[in-house]
């Protein structure tokens, strides 16, 4: 493997940090205030974001992390649509990502990152139900409950915080071991679980969430319906743990408060996004890992395709077509796809059409048509780039990806695809630069510096070397600043 693709051993082993010498109760004190001005007992937004980026850098190595661009673009757009109507300004941008886990749960990390289990999306019966849970989590982010809980632990007996900070400082020094990062989000979700938000904090997150839902055009009844379902599920599975109710206790008092706040308001005029049903189907497919799960899913999708109409029917047909493709039945998949396209247009259907194309040339043609229809879809952009690469058209792929990188400068996956094409074209300096951008955006700054240094060693152009020197200095300054931010929280 070319050295430009190698990931250096720099990074945070979060699993190790959380698993060694950590007490079971990294909890937010129950008396923590839930509203009002930010407490002095909290991490600064810069430190909180650094911690969140470190967890995400390691989390992308987690086998449960879903790196599907289409899914995470939809979830993040949904989260930011809600956050735009938060009653108070948020210190962090919201980024939502999916995790393959059938339990109905979601969890917030430091820095505005929110993880959503596949089970939560698959279990939602409307987009407003999913929005209700996300709005509640954003309420916690808005109040900086996680930052305050972590800071109070770091000021007391926060062995977990000290371990996390110590691991991050080692990573910033290039001394981490990324290979240890398995089950990261299982550990990270434990942070959320152990915080033990106070009753007041939960209630204020509900109230803020309801306001966000109303103003963003969702039905607040969706939050109540989902929480009722979760409460019933927790009763049926009492003692098993792992569900949303175990991390966010759903009391009768909370449900009554929601009912009172919804009652008397006019019914919301909701215009649901058809993509919800396609993303839901996609996550159901990802969640169904073994043959028995896939058979059950096929039965469910068959019923929905027969009994439902509109986007839900098309999404069910999309799911069935994907199962046919996985089973080695491309003819059946194409037939289902045509049925779905006759019902509803969606970028997910065009993405599947690219994959089902009869030849690399046909895939390139299908991807061009899809990109023309869906120029704001990261999933379609990904499909077009891969189709061009598979057809051996790396010049066209590199040119396309350079445009896409400008459209989505903060989506690291496109930088990695760009590096692949540049490397095959023999443009090694540019390939290293693209990989440096990929690692910079995923939080692995020492590895980014290494790629820039390799790029500099390969270039004989004075102006290119000067530009690379500037990037290297800027990244080293960021590393120094991050160390300075974190050192005060390190335990001796």
From TrEMBL:
<dbReference type="Pfam" id="PF01435">
    <property type="entry name" value="Peptidase_M48"/>
</dbReference>
<dbReference type="InterPro" id="IPR001915">
    <property type="entry name" value="Peptidase_M48"/>
</dbReference>
<dbReference type="Pfam" id="PF14559">
    <property type="entry name" value="TPR_19"/>
</dbReference>
<keyword id="KW-0479">Metal-binding</keyword>
<dbReference type="GO" id="GO:0008237">
    <property type="term" value="F:metallopeptidase activity"/>
</dbReference>
<dbReference type="InterPro" id="IPR051156">
    <property type="entry name" value="Mito/Outer_Membr_Metalloprot"/>
</dbReference>
<dbReference type="InterPro" id="IPR011990">
    <property type="entry name" value="TPR-like_helical_dom_sf"/>
</dbReference>
<feature type="domain" description="Peptidase M48">
    <location>
        <begin position="72"/>
        <end position="261"/>
    </location>
</feature>
<keyword id="KW-0645">Protease</keyword>
<keyword id="KW-0482">Metalloprotease</keyword>
<keyword id="KW-0862">Zinc</keyword>
<keyword id="KW-0378">Hydrolase</keyword>
<protein>
    <submittedName>
        <fullName>M48 family metalloprotease</fullName>
        <ecNumber>3.4.24.-</ecNumber>
    </submittedName>
</protein>
């Amino acid at each position: 493997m070319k050295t430009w693709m190698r990931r250096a051993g720099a990074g945070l082993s979060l699993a190790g940090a959380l698993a060694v010498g950590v007490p079971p109760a990294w909890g937010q004190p129950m008396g923590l205030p839930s509203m009002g001005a930010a407490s002095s007992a909290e991490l600064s937004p810069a430190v909180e974001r650094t911690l969140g980026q470190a967890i995400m850098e390691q989390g992308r190595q987690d086998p449960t992390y879903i790196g599907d661009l289409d899914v995470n673009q939809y979830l993040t757009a949904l989260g930011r649509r809600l956050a735009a109507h938060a009653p108070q300004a948020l210190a962090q941008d919201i980024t939502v990502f999916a995790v393959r886990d059938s339990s109905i749960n979601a969890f917030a990390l430091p820095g505005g990152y929110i993880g959503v289990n596949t089970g939560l999306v698959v279990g939602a019966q409307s987009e407003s139900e999913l929005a209700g849970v996300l709005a509640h989590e954003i309420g916690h982010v808005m109040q900086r409950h996680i930052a305050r809980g972590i800071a109070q632990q770091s000021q007391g007996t926060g062995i977990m915080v000290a371990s996390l900070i110590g691991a991050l400082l080692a990573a910033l020094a290039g001394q981490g071991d990324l290979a240890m990062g398995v089950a990261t989000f299982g550990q990270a979700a434990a942070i959320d679980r152990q915080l033990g938000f106070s009753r007041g904090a939960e209630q204020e997150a509900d109230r803020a969430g309801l306001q966000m839902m109303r103003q963003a055009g969702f039905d607040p009844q969706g939050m109540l319906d989902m929480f009722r379902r979760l409460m019933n599920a927790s009763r049926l599975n009492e003692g098993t743990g792992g569900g949303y109710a175990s991390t966010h206790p759903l009391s009768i008092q909370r449900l009554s408060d929601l009912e009172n706040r919804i009652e008397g308001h006019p019914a919301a005029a909701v215009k649901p996004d058809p993509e919800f049903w396609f993303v839901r189907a996609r996550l159901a497919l990802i969640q169904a890992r073994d043959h028995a799960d896939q058979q059950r899913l096929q039965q469910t999708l068959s019923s929905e395709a027969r009994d439902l109409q509109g986007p839900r029917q098309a999404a069910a047909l999309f799911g069935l077509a994907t199962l046919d493709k996985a089973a080695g039945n491309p003819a059946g998949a194409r037939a289902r796809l045509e049925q779905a396209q006759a019902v509803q247009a969606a970028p997910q259907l065009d993405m599947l059409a690219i994959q089902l194309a009869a030849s690399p040339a046909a895939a390139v043609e299908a991807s061009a048509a899809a990109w023309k229809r869906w120029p704001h879809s990261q999933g379609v952009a990904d499909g077009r780039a891969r189709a061009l690469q598979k057809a051996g058209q790396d010049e066209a792929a590199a040119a396309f990806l350079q445009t896409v990188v400008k459209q989505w400068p903060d989506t690291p996956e496109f930088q990695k695809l760009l590096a692949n094409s540049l490397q095959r074209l023999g443009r090694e300096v540019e390939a290293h630069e693209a990989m440096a951008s990929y690692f910079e955006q995923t939080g692995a700054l020492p590895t980014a510096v290494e790629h820039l240094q390799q790029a500099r060693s390969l270039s004989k152009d004075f102006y290119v070397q000067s530009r690379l020197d500037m990037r290297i200095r800027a990244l080293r300054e960021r590393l120094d600043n991050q160390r300075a931010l974190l050192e005060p929280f390190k335990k001796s």
